[in-house]
């Protein structure tokens, strides 16, 4: 074995464990300051209460508190992020830190056969900034037809023409290769071109040109084609919704942020008015009142859980757990996610393409001083979209992610567990290459027809919910994934890509009974090697009053409950084409705008305005 490769591998191990250790130390000690903050009981009434400080909640609370006449309480189950999370290259390590909920799904019948217990690992952000702290920083909005479809389903105000201004409002795009008319320049979220330059991104673009596609801005006029994706970074450092919307709001006297506070339920009175929340902090149950509205932005898993604990959900399920039914709605249904199959491991033909070498001190200098170089990269060197054979030409249902690393790249420390791979998969496919430079192409299904669900495990708020995405329960998804894998193979087999990469050991050990590249072989790969891109949405579906499956209306108000809205990924009726962080930020922007307009309009149907006597009565009821 090459001693240099062995040493580099050892340093990678030390660095990965060091990063995890520092995050835990930060969690335990630095966050102790906020954990032991006293909650001001004299300020237990606010105009707005926002539950969850993630990709949408941070936006909603920041925008509402821009109006100095409103008081806003932001309640978050986690704490503040460590500075280390801002290094893009360590994104794959972050789900192993205490900043994640680390959910697990139920065993999957049609996929995940090479995963431990056939379960999928679902890390979601439990931290100020939510999953924008953990994600891979990709700025992808989805397709214009996604939002026109939302509007066609009866969601007035959610067409592409309606939502584009809110995408642009949050965006500060500094890129050079963009369709200017589709992008914002003055927003809070900085979006940049990749600062790390290597030969692989250009090879991927050249592969697309070789296959007859164009090099495009996937957030511009047309989504079909190849690109080097833009990142939500500022000078090479992660630009999360914490840093973009909350970090500099500490001087606002009308915005209160409470960390390490897990919401138990929304309080609803006999008139079906949501008037407050109950949360647990340091073992104490605390009640806080909202004079105007409560906005749930806890994400596609925690938001339906909180609603069901509050009595809003499927009647039979709530009664099973002896929860008083306030409104019978299909909360937790319509769950969707993006799933992929990796074409991996790909081996570099030369080591100059290596993503990271801890011995390279110049790379550290380049990042620390200039915000550039290897450490400013998230490892995703290319992205492509195309339509399957039965799909509309510019509403693609297939996405490729080209990554300059694989499960083997971190020696099995984090990415392996993020995929949930069992020991056999690691030992036979990846471990032999843990000292090599490897890469991957993810064949991704972006418009799945399969639908899953979320249920309460019990009426105890401390229990994680039961999650079953029902991957591949609709056979259509397998057929599209077969085409996606073929597309990934075609891309790898171009002259442009073969100069740099080759597929190692084309025969997957789980599928040795089938001829390589046969349809049966690819179906076997789908069954065994599928994994999630961690994009759960749809569990509190938005829809018109005529939709029996809808939980919220197009104004994001919960049906049957006054003064309660949902603003996060759970409201998406159909998952958009692409990584979901940008769409969730857009939902936060649009939600805040609708809320402010509603209370500015002088509507006679506004939620209650609590005086001190009513407040005392409400607190007394809860005590």
Automatic annotation (TrEMBL):
<dbReference type="InterPro" id="IPR007867">
    <property type="entry name" value="GMC_OxRtase_C"/>
</dbReference>
<feature type="domain" description="Glucose-methanol-choline oxidoreductase N-terminal">
    <location>
        <begin position="299"/>
        <end position="313"/>
    </location>
</feature>
<dbReference type="GO" id="GO:0016614">
    <property type="term" value="F:oxidoreductase activity, acting on CH-OH group of donors"/>
</dbReference>
<feature type="domain" description="Glucose-methanol-choline oxidoreductase N-terminal">
    <location>
        <begin position="125"/>
        <end position="148"/>
    </location>
</feature>
<dbReference type="InterPro" id="IPR036188">
    <property type="entry name" value="FAD/NAD-bd_sf"/>
</dbReference>
<keyword id="KW-0285">Flavoprotein</keyword>
<dbReference type="Pfam" id="PF00732">
    <property type="entry name" value="GMC_oxred_N"/>
</dbReference>
<protein>
    <recommendedName>
        <fullName>Glucose-methanol-choline oxidoreductase N-terminal domain-containing protein</fullName>
    </recommendedName>
</protein>
<keyword id="KW-0274">FAD</keyword>
<keyword id="KW-0812">Transmembrane</keyword>
<dbReference type="InterPro" id="IPR012132">
    <property type="entry name" value="GMC_OxRdtase"/>
</dbReference>
<keyword id="KW-1133">Transmembrane helix</keyword>
<dbReference type="InterPro" id="IPR000172">
    <property type="entry name" value="GMC_OxRdtase_N"/>
</dbReference>
<dbReference type="Pfam" id="PF05199">
    <property type="entry name" value="GMC_oxred_C"/>
</dbReference>
<feature type="binding site">
    <location>
        <position position="263"/>
    </location>
    <ligand>
        <name>FAD</name>
    </ligand>
</feature>
<feature type="transmembrane region" description="Helical">
    <location>
        <begin position="7"/>
        <end position="30"/>
    </location>
</feature>
<dbReference type="GO" id="GO:0050660">
    <property type="term" value="F:flavin adenine dinucleotide binding"/>
</dbReference>
<keyword id="KW-0472">Membrane</keyword>
<comment type="similarity">
    <text>Belongs to the GMC oxidoreductase family.</text>
</comment>
<feature type="binding site">
    <location>
        <position position="127"/>
    </location>
    <ligand>
        <name>FAD</name>
    </ligand>
</feature>
